[in-house]
Amino acid sequence: MRQQIDPPGTPPLIGPFSPAILAQGRTLYVSGQGPQDPVTKGFRLGNIEEETRLTLDNVTRLLHGAGADWSHVVKVGVYLTRMEDFAAFNRVYSEYLVTPSPARTTIICSLLAGISVEVDCIAVID
Predict the structure, then answer these.
(1) What is the CATH number of domain 25-125?
(2) Backbone torsion region of residue 57, taken as left when φ is above 0, otherwise alpha when ψ lies between -120 and 50, otherwise beta
């Protein structure tokens, strides 16, 4: 069960996320995933859209492995190396989401191996 918490007086949203999600069930914690090719096992560097899609596909595989999907995700952590990639990341990220969107934090930081994006998440399975 996932329920968006958005009481009156909450500041307006500025992206594809919920201000808070109330969830009940078993919890799955997905470690940070990057644009790692599942066949070659190495990172596949490209533009932010390509790296984001591969990263989110990797998260999706882990969710499916636990019997979950993006409808179970309640919290997402996004790590980008460049603030300029924020809008492009959001365009691709929005393709994976279901309503209500998970709560989310985005951090601009350095990442290993020259990658541009890393994503972790928490999912609650009914």
Answers:
(1) 3.30.1330.40
(2) alpha
